[in-house]
Amino acid sequence: MSDCAPCRRCCCAPGEKHAWLEIVLAEGRNRQIRRLLAAFGIGVLRLVRVAIGPLALGTLPKGQWRELTAEEITALGGG
């Protein structure tokens, strides 16, 4: 994984059997989080994307999409 961009762990919420981790990737690669945690012997049960760049997904349902606002396009470096 030496060719992957760096990531950082923001917080951890431990549970009785499982824990929630929030990991921020600078650049997401295929299965990067699963491979990173597997290197430490940690299995991944579920991954949840909460944002793409500066855009928080909020309550947007899985598989759905919406038009970006002009401000969001600018925030992404476009337009």
Report on this model:
- The protein is α+β, with helices and mostly antiparallel strands.
- It has one domain.
- It has two helices and four strands.
- The chain has helices at residues 32-38, 70-75, and strands at residues 7-14, 19-25, 51-52, 55-56.
- The strands form two sheets. A two-stranded antiparallel ribbon has the order 1-2. The protein has a two-stranded antiparallel ribbon with strand order 3-4.
- The longest helix has 7 residues, at 32-38.
- The relative contact order is 0.13.
User: What oligomeric state is this?
Assistant: single chain
Overall spatial form: globular
β-strand number? 4
User: Which stretches of 5+ consecutive residues score pLDDT under 50?
Assistant: none
Radius of gyration: 15 Å
In summary, what is this structure?
The protein has about 80 residues and is of the alpha+beta class. Helix content is about 15%, strand content about 25%.
Question: Which labels suit this protein?
Answer:
79 residues; alpha+beta; two-stranded antiparallel ribbon; 4 strands
Strand-helix topology:
Elements: E1 7-14, E2 19-25, H1 32-38, E3 51-52, E4 55-56, H2 70-75
Antiparallel strand pairs: 1-2, 3-4
